[in-house]
Amino acid sequence: MKNRHLVFTGLVLLIALLLPLLTNDYIIQVGTEIAMYAALAAGWNLIGGITGYPSFGNVTFFGLGAILAGAFSVNWHWQYGLAGIVAVLIAGAFGFLLGLPILRLKGHYFSIATLALAQATLAVVTNVQFLGGGRGTSLPLIGSPLIFYYIMFGIAALSALVTYLIVHSQYGNTLLAIKSDEQAAQSVGINTVLAKSTAFALSALLGAMVGVVYAIWQSYIDPPTVFEPGITVLMLVMTLIGGAGTVAGPILGAVIIGLLTQLAMAFSQNASSLILGLGIIVVVLFLPQGILGRQRSGKGGKRKGKHSFSLRG
Amino acid sequence: MSILQIKNLSKDFGGLRVLENISFSLDEGSVVGLIGPNGAGKSTLVNLIGGGDQPTRGEIYFGSRRLNGLPAWRIARLGLARTFQITRIFSDLTLDDNVRLAAWTNGWRGKNLETEVARLIALTELSDKTGVLGRDLTLSDQKRLQLARALALKPKLLLLDEVMAGLNPSELDRAIQLLAKLRNEGITMLVIEHLMRVIMSISDRVLVLHQGTLIADGPPAEIVASSQVQEAYLGRRYVKNRGGFQPDEPSEVKEGT
Amino acid sequence: MHLWLQIILNGILQGGILGISALAFSLQWGVMNLINLAHGSFQILAAYVAMVLLQRLGLDPFLAMPLVFLIFLAGGYLLQFGIINRVISGNLFMTLLLTYGLDFVLANFMILLFTADYKSVNTPYANSSWHLLGFQFPIVRTLALIFLVILSLLLWLFLEYSRTGRAIRATSMGTEPARLMGLKIPKVYALTFGLSSGLAAIGGIFFGLSNAFSPAAGGPLTVGAFVVTILGGVGTSWGPLVGGLILGVLDAVGSVILGPTYVNIITFGLLLIILILRPTGVLGRAAT
Question: What EC designation does it have (chain B) (predicted)?
Fold first, then answer.
């Protein structure tokens, strides 16, 4: 079992590292995007998949990372490295502090609050000149596409490693316990507020890291684009397709969706969106546990309370 | 020496008063039964003590520590553990991870952690279920798991909310023995139970809740003989006509029936 | 002073369109615990239908309204019965995801049919106003508010006194008791979704009459319905009216004082604050 995982991981790493040797710019571009979404999805998985809080606003941290790094380097002439680190830390702190009140909300209310969080942050950004206002920010072009491929790939690998370490620790079990039953978790002495907010902050750190690199890679930041709610939904869909709560799930999901999107793009932009929409519906209806997700047995998987009935039965 | 003190406790849900001016205290090392008809407010009382909800009025002291306003997890860390009437287990974790997490959270580490987890699982007779996911456990296993998990907190006080409901007679006997053993270890217990047989055999003292008020407090024999308690449980007419109250009367006797 | 009164009046009248949209959204949420992320796209689709009926058949949108209502009622019924019911008993966010997928499909379908350009439903009265006591009453918005009051009343009467309405209310309190009463829950759900789709269509026609719209306008409409529903309280008959008026006035006044770009900060900031402080809304039941 362990060996198989090791071989699989090695294989993925090898392919990813060698890929640029035998391909053109287009493939590298696609590869960078896939790595980017794999990292974002892995970040989402920490709060949405493992802790069970389906965030619809994780794009907030991606956007904040991009916007802040851009603002620091353009307005204060900071090096990208410093600007990036400070941006990531601010986004992480933002996630932790906002997590404290928002993670008290359950179910739909949490999802809506995070959706509102992303929109409210965008609204603030577009009204603050320092952050680029409504017009966006241009950054000096640096590096080659290949460098960004390796950086994005590094962040994706880091996200997977963080997930692996969490899943195999008592902290990971703490988060799973919170997902199962928060009141029971408290009854054994777990500070649920702290544990959840920490997970949200970790999720924010990873998202912001990707955002920073994205901004430098694209060398232009358009606020509505980096706060686009659809980015959060992509993280969610990828995680779900691959298997929520698993280490490899988000990455697998990012690869599948990434490749499918490219295929559909060959027909038309519009068709690719339409196919993505249909894909989401198909996954929800026929693959609700994801490819790597554990098949729930017995009474599991049913929702407690007022909707615990089966219409199919 | 009292370990738990409840002072003039009341709880309203909306306009409905569920608990009215409850006062009592528990002596360290004692086992106290809490009985009363369904809807009397027993689980609400346990929930208030455990910090799952806040009282409308009144105070709760654990030793010299005031519990009002403390979050449930902090109360648990003080050594006040509880089980839930409707079982609440971590369905995504295996049975041993359920216990391990509770023990780890309360400071057990390394080798000691594993020894303690094994001891608690053996104590609650769940050794053959290790590795089984919480969601796949039977109700009876879940009840025992809740107990093991609560014991992982090294509790000074245990609040047991119907841990024995649904057990068969032989399981019941072993559960009673287990509680007796815990009591010998010096753990104070407040036990909610419908089965009079259990209450009679393990309690030093019995509290009776009826419609949110404490209507009796005394040794088990006295409680069983009390006409007020019989009325509360069985209704006035029943007491008059039959004039009797079987200590072994099984559970689920509803008000006014 | 007069100017401010007119601004507040504009806000109140804007509340009509917001409220009709929320009436549908709140019904689905309250009865089925379903957040319909495709809600806004339903409304935009209805606006396109009204536009086509006007352009091709010369049918006035108000005359077309009953027809569009029925089409959406039937469509919504089938959609819930055939697809949404299959996942509604599962994980909460699977239904969220499903409706997001629907939204994606609908929005892109509309782009294919109507392009991404802005369109409008051109009627002679779309931009005219009534004048009363020195104030302007834009015709469409005034009618929207009147419709909202009437629809709220009708919905309340329907839920309170009709047999079907009572079945819906019983189901909203929990599926178990409803099933014990012999109700066919999948059908009650389908009916609820059909009814709210019909209401959403009416809201969409009003939106199309008073605003230029494109397939991308669905998202903001959904979010607006969220905010109004949260403000008024989920699953209350009069919540959408109250929430619509509050948000309408706040947006109108806020955009004058702070500038129109700040409207989103007000809307979403308010949503966050309400969620954190009082998630049951202004008229909502207290949490237990």
Answer: 3.6.1.3
